[in-house]
Amino acid sequence: MSIDAMLAERGTTYGEYPVGAKIAMDLFDVAQASPSYRKMTAAQQYAVFMILAKLSRALNGDPNYIDSWRDASSYARLVADDLAAKEGSTDSKVTKTVFRYGGWRDA
To answer: What distance in Å separates the CA atoms of residue 63 and residue 54, rounded to the nearest whole number?
Structure first.
């Protein structure tokens, strides 16, 4: 596949590049200005950036393109796995909840 054909295909999937880049960078500006951003490790910051980049593709292009969502969840999984292996990491205090008619309830 030629680079022109590849770029045309990706444009169909991800939308116009300058628009997607603007969305991604606007989202990243919000992330960097957030209270906990500076407390994050480089790996966490990178994951945030990559997740936002993948979400910007869904916001700008085809929101039904599964790979964008899988890619975003993969970066979140990398951080979660890294945290699970470290002493001092925190996890949810909720053991199990289920949605039943009327709202969320303990299982």
So the answer is: 11
